[in-house]
Structure formats: C-alpha cells, structure tokens
Amino acid sequence: MIATVPAFDRMGEENAFAVLARATALANEGRDIINLGIGQPDFKTPEHIVEAAIKALRDGHHGYTPATGLLATREAVARRTLSTTGVEVSPENVMIMPGGKPTMYAAIVMFGEPGSEILYPDPGFPIYRSMIEFTGATPIPVPIREETGFAFSAEETLSLITPKTRLLILNSPANPTGGITPRAEIEKLVKGLADHPHVAIMSDEIYDVMTYDGEKHTSLLEFPEIRDRLIVLNGWSKTWAMTGWRMGWSIWPNGLYDKVRKLAVNCWSCVNAPSQFAGIAAIDGPQDAVDEMMAAFDQRRKLVVDGLRALPGIDCATPKGAFYAFPNVKETGWPAKKLAAALLDEAGVALIGGPDFGILGEGYIRLSYANSAENIERALERIGDFLSR
C-alpha cells in the first residue's frame, strides 16, 4: 500500500455528508427518509439570481477571473458589509472564495503548525478541529454550554490563551447549537484580547442574518482595535439558498490578504465567473425571498422546539439563530450517536449525533429545520413513536 504523509491520517471529516450518503442510499432502496441532518435550505435559489448567472454565460463570461474575485463582486460584498454592520471595508480586503470552507482552510493553515495551539468552539463545526489537526497544531476546545444559551464565555475563552496560541476561531450565530453570543460578552472578549496581540481571530459569520426574537448579530468587524488581525468568513450559501453554487467571501487584514491570494493561485485559481455575477445579483437585488425564507424558518423553529419538548426524555433550548436545534437527549438513556443512527435506520429520520461536533456534544443531537413544516411534523411523530417503543 502506498503511504501518504501523516497529516492525511490526522484529517477528519464532516459527518453530515456521511449521514446524507446513508440517507440517500436508504431512499434509493425505497425507504421513506426525512432528512433533518444536512444544513441546507430546502428553498430554491431566487429566480433573479439564477437569471444573472444565465445572462453571464450568454454574455460570454466563460474565462478565468482574478484569484481574489471580480472587482464588481468584491465591491458588492463591501456594500453589503456596510449595510449589515455599519463598517466600511475596502474591496481590496475582500476575497471571493469557492464556499466557506476554503476560508477556514486558509486561516488555519496560515497559523497551524506543530507546537502551536488553535482555539475553536466545542461543540462546533467539525472542520475546525479537522483542519487544526491536519496542520499538526494542538486543538484547544472552547466550551459552548447549554446553560449559557450556547454562547461562549469571554472569561473562559481568554483563560485558554497561552503564548503558543496562534488563532482563535469564533462562530455566532452558531452551528450546531443555534446559539448567539451577546454583544456584551463579545465586547469583554475584545477588551481581553488586547493583552494577547499575538493571537489572530477568525470569525465565522455565515449565519449573520439568521436571527430570531429580536436578536441582533454582532460582527467582529465592529471592533477596530482587532481589525489588523481579524479574518471574517461569510458567504452566499445559507442566506440566499445557494449551497451548491459554492460561493463564499472573506475579509482579511492587509498583512494577510496577499498570503491568501497566493494560496488561491496555488489551490483553486479563481471562483467561476457566472456564479460571481449571481452573487452580485443576490446582494444588490430584492431580498423578499430571504425575508420569506426566514419567516418560514422561524415558524419551523417554534414547531421543532415545542415538538421536541413534548417527547419523552428530550429537552430543547430555543435556538436564537441559524436553522438548527440542539436538543438535550441525555434523559433518553441513549448515547447520542447511537440514537441518531437508530433513528435513521429504524425510524427513517436523519439527524446528526452531537459528538460529531465535539467532545461536549455528547448527550445532544443536531436537527436542521431547513426542511418543510410537514416533514418536520412527520419526523417528530416518528421520533416520538421510536422513543415510546
């Protein structure tokens, strides 16, 4: 057998795709499967966005684009950032990416190496830890606890920083918990980071507009004192139901921008041209479809929380953002991953076990309510029947 370098043996993966593959296989066998596992809106990309891509193709935009992205696309991101955060950013600090994960990859490989430490949320998006381990750096989990509303604690986060810490990863609104960290806690963190100027920050803000009950997202861009070491991850996938378009953006400080440009040249050359025109149309066009999608998510969120709380052995904190619930299943007596596997195989409901998101995910499962209310009601009924048996 041909041997690869050890880094590839350290690499993990995102189990949501493994569950998707299993659910698809069962469906192909004729099983009725309800997939509440994958974090993908069940809405179509709005028509004016699709038409912008078609027009771009018909207009002959078939070639390479700059590694950093089309200037017009970067300018659109700068406009959108100003409208959502009140912060003016230069298009020369905006990088158009083929999805959100390349920003994670770029930030982590820039700072991760043997002997360094990178802090990341636990439970959190599994690719954070996977890529940290790939680089040989030591992953340091930042606990995200139900009792704090699944928000990080500034005091606890700061206490984990050492001279070896190179990068701090933050995520709010959060996957998998739906938690939002309050502005006061973020302000406390930023103040404390003044004592740790050697630490870079990557803020994953992909769910920035997905908030409920009057909650407001606080962008790390709003704090000029950390702008020279801040990387912000965002994109089109969730807000405009464009997961398959593979379109993301990130905002980089001057000292890191050319490094990520070089990485793009080496890894993916550029982002495809027609998708970038679609991205401009998404940002500058009507937002009615976004508002309608969020109204539907809010209705489903309430349906999910009430339905889960009515099930034996399950409690569920009300998610404040994104489109995930992270119910506590400890009282069912089931280990979380075994419960998720059994629900798929025996009840036909695809969910993700909490341990797939970190050590502190045990006792929880993730449920995506980016599916129809009808399917959610059917899934809750099946889960209830299974637990009753």
TrEMBL record:
GO BP terms in the entry: amino acid metabolic process
Keyword NAD: no
Cofactor annotation: pyridoxal 5'-phosphate
Molecular function terms from GO: L-aspartate:2-oxoglutarate aminotransferase activity; pyridoxal phosphate binding
Keywords: Aminotransferase, Pyridoxal phosphate, Transferase
Domain Aminotransferase class I/classII large intervals: 32-383
Family stated for the protein in its record: Belongs to the class-I pyridoxal-phosphate-dependent aminotransferase family.
Name of the protein described by the UniProt record: aspartate transaminase
Native organism: Georhizobium profundi
Lineage, highest ranks first: Bacteria, Pseudomonadati, Pseudomonadota, Alphaproteobacteria, Hyphomicrobiales
